[in-house]
C-alpha cells in the first residue's frame, strides 16, 4: 500500500468543465508516495483547478481520484483533510483575528477528531500549544507566535499557511504557489524548508518560480490547457521539445 | 364542500398570489442583483396603499389614485435610496437588516402620525363592484381584475427582461454583479432603477390590495415575510421564480386556511380539529418552503450564475 | 494569558460598574419607594439574557438569526400552557421549556444551517413568523390575546412572587450564563465556532465539518433564549404571541449590535441602552417646544428607528465594542 510517511495519489480520466471551458481535460496523473512532484504550465493551464479537484473543493464531471489506494472522488473537503490530504492556498487563507499560535492551534485541534469541549480554556492547554509551537518553529515563526496575524508581512503569512498544513500531520500536501509574492530571501528560506520536508510527505507543488521548481522537484508534470503533456524528471522535462513549444518564448524560464 | 366553493377559493389563491408576485418580483431583483437585504420593501407597499386611499378620496378615480400612488411611492423609494440605502450596499447583511428595520419603524410611525392609528379603507371601485361569471360561477370582478393586472405585469416584466436593453443589464447583473460593474455599466443608475422598479411594483400591490384589506400601520411586515417565503422558494433573483413561487404560496395558503379546517373536522374529532386546525393551516407555506430548501436549496427556478 | 486587575481597561471597568449597579438596584428602588424601576431593570435583564444568547450565534458564530424571539416564545408558552393545566412547579416548567426548545432548535437549525447569507436571514424570520401564527391559532391557549398566568413558577425555596427575590434570580441567571459563555468562547468548541465564522473554507480544509458545531451553537443559543422566555412569562405573568413577533427579534439584534458583538457583556449594555431609551422617549416629559414632546411620547418608535439607522451608518462596532479593551484581545 503506502509507506509509513507520505501516501500515493492518483487521478484517472479527470474532467472538469465550466460553462463551455474545459479546465481539466482527461487528466491521468500519478504521484508516488514520498515524492515532491511539481505541476507547471502556462497561465490558465488548469493547475489550481487540479488542486481544487484533488482537495475536494471542486467535484469532477468525470474520472476518479485515488488516495492511498482508495477511491476518494466523492469525499468532501473535510473528509479528505482528516485522512491526511491537506492543501495550502495560493491567496493566504488564515484567521486574521487570531494570533499565529491560535491559528496553528486550530489546526492541531482538528486532529483530535472533534472539538466538543466546552469548558477547558484552549489558551492554557499544552496539548494544543506544544504541537502548534513546534509547527511554527519548523517554518521559522516560533518567535512571533503571540503576535496577531495582521502585524505579519506577506512572506511570513505564507509561512504561517504552511505551518497550519504541517500541524495537521498530513501524508499528502497540495501546495498552491507557496512562494507567491515572496521576496528573494523569503523564497530561498521557503525552498530550504521544503527541501527539509521532502521524503517525509508526498508533496504536489504548483509553482511559477522555475528555479525553485527545478531544485525541489523529484518529478515534474507540464499542464497545457488542462491536459498533462509531459511528465518526468527535471532533466527530461528541460530537454523535451513539446515542453519548449508549449512555453513559446518562455523557454528561457526553463533554464 | 361544493365544487364552486373550491373554485372560488382557488381563484382567491391565485389573486393573492398575484399580489405576492407584484411584491416579490421587485424585491427578488433587489436581493439578487444588489445583494441588498431590503426589509423596508413592505413599507413601500404600505406607503402605496395609504397614498392610494388618500388619492382616491380626493379624486374618486381609481386610475388617477393609482398613478398618484405609484409616483409618490417611487419618489419616496428613490429619496430613501439616495439618503440611506446607498450607503449600505457595500456593508454586511447585518447592517442592512438593522438599517432597514430602523426605516420600517420610522415609516410605521410616520403613517400613524399622518393618518392616525385606525385602519383606513377604500371601496372597491364602482366599475368592478358587481360579480362576473366564470364558467357559470359568480366571482367578484375586482379580484379578477387583480389577477389580470398581475398577469399583465408578469408579461410586461418578461418583455422587459428578455427583450429590452435594460433587461439585458438586469440579467447580466443578476448572473454576475461583479463582472457587470467591471464592464463599465453605470451601477448607481442601475441600482436606483431596480429600487425604483421595486417601489413601483410594491405601490401597485398596495393599490390593488387597498380595497381588499385594511390599510394600517404595520401592514407591510406580515406580507413582507410571506414575500420572503415566496422568494426563497422560487429562487433569489429570479422573476420567474417569483411568479411561480407566488402562485404556489398564494394558492396553498388560501386553500389551506379555507379547506384544511373543514377537512380536519371530517377526519378528527371536532374539538381536536378546532384546536389545531388553524395552527396547522398557517404552517403550510412554511413547511413547503422548508421542503423546497431541503430538496433544492437554491429554489425552484434559480438564476444561473456565471 | 490570565487577566489581572492591573490589566483592566475602560471596557473592563465599565463592566464592573454595571455589575455593581445591577446588584444594588433592589436596595435603591426600595429606598426611593419606586418598585416600578425594579420591574423595569428586571425586564432589561431578562431581555439582556436573550440578547446574550443570540450573541453566541450572531457575534461569535456569524449567523444572523432574525427569528430568535421564537425561542423566547417557547419558554413563555411552556410556562403558560403548563400553568393553565394546573402544573405550577418551576422545575417542570423549565425542563419542559428546554426540551421543547432544544427539539425545535435542532429541527429548525438542521434545515436553515444548510443555507447561508441572505437566505439564512430570511428563513429565520419566516420560521419565527410561522411559530407566531401557530400560537395565534391555538385558541385554547389564548390565541391572539395571549395567556394569563395565575402565579409565578414554584421553585420551592425561592419565592419568585417576591419582586426582589425574582430580581436576584434573574441576575444570577444572567451572570451564570455570562460565566458559562466566557468559558465556552475560549474552549475548543468556541474556537471552532469563531473559526467557522472567520474562514469557513479554511476550517473545512483543516478537516472540520462546521455544520455540526454551528448546529450545537444554535441549539445552545436557543436554550438561553428559552430560559429568558421562562423568566419573561414569570415577570409579566403573561404569555403572549407578541413575544414571538419579528419586532422582538429585531430588538434583540439591535441590542446585540448596539452593545458590540465581539464581547460577551456587550448585549447587556445594548439592552440597557435600548430599553432605557424607550422608557425615556415614551413617558418622560421632555422640555421641548411646540408639543414636540407629546409627538415623541406617542411616536417614540420612530426616534428609536432613526437612532438605529444613524448608529448603523456611523458606528461599525457598536457602543460597547467601541470602547477599547484593557488588553489587546487574544
Descriptive key words:
heterotrimer, A: 255 residues, alpha/beta, Rossmann fold, 6-stranded mixed sheet, 4-stranded antiparallel sheet, 10 strands, 36% helix, B: 306 residues, mainly alpha, ABC transporter involved in vitamin B12 uptake, BtuC, 75% helix
Summarize the structure.
The complex is a heterotrimer of chains A (255), B (306) and C (330). Chain A is an alpha/beta fold and 255 residues long. Chain A contains 10 helices and 10 strands.
Q: Ends of chain B: how far apart?
A: 50 Å
The first-level CATH class name of chain B: Mainly Alpha
Class by alpha and beta content of chain B: mainly alpha
Bin the strand percentage of chain B.
under 5%
Residues in β-strands, percent of chain C: under 5%
Query: How would you describe the shape of chain B?
Result: globular
Radius of gyration of chain B: 20 Å
Radius of gyration of chain C: 20 Å
Q: Which geometry of chain C do the CA atoms define? A: globular
Number of domain units of chain B: 1
Please describe the biggest sheet of chain C, giving its number of strands, its sense, and whether it closes into a barrel. Answer: 2 strands, antiparallel
Number of helices of chain B: 11
Largest interface comes to: B-C, 47 and 45 residues
Question: Which stretches of chain C of 5+ consecutive residues score pLDDT under 50?
Answer: 324-330
Q: Percentage of helical residues of chain C?
A: over 70%
What's the domain count of chain C? 1
Order of helices and strands of chain C: HHHHHEHHHHEHHHH
* Individual helix count of chain C: 13
Largest sheet of chain B: 2 strands, antiparallel
CATH topology of chain B: ABC transporter involved in vitamin B12 uptake, BtuC
Give the strand line-up of the largest sheet of chain B.
Answer: 1-2
Report what the structure shows:
In chain A, the strands form two sheets. Chain A has a six-stranded mixed β-sheet with strand order 6-7-8-3-9-10, with helices on both faces. A four-stranded antiparallel β-sheet of chain A has the order 2-1-4-5, covered by helices on one side. Chain A contains ten helices and ten strands. Chain A is of the alpha/beta class and 255 residues long. The model of chain A has no long low-confidence stretch (mean pLDDT 88). Chain A has two domains: 1-84 and 171-255, 3-Layer(aba) Sandwich (Rossmann fold); 94-169, no CATH class. Chain B has a single domain (15-124, 139-295), classed as ABC transporter involved in vitamin B12 uptake, BtuC (Orthogonal Bundle). Chain B has eleven helices and two strands, in the order ααααββααααααα. By secondary structure, chain C is an all-alpha fold. Chain C has one domain. The longest helix of chain C has 27 residues, at 210-236. Chain C starts with 9 loop residues before the first helix and ends in a 16-residue tail after the last helix. Chains in contact: A-C, B-C. Chains B and C meet through α4, α9 and α11 of B and α5, α10 and α13 of C.
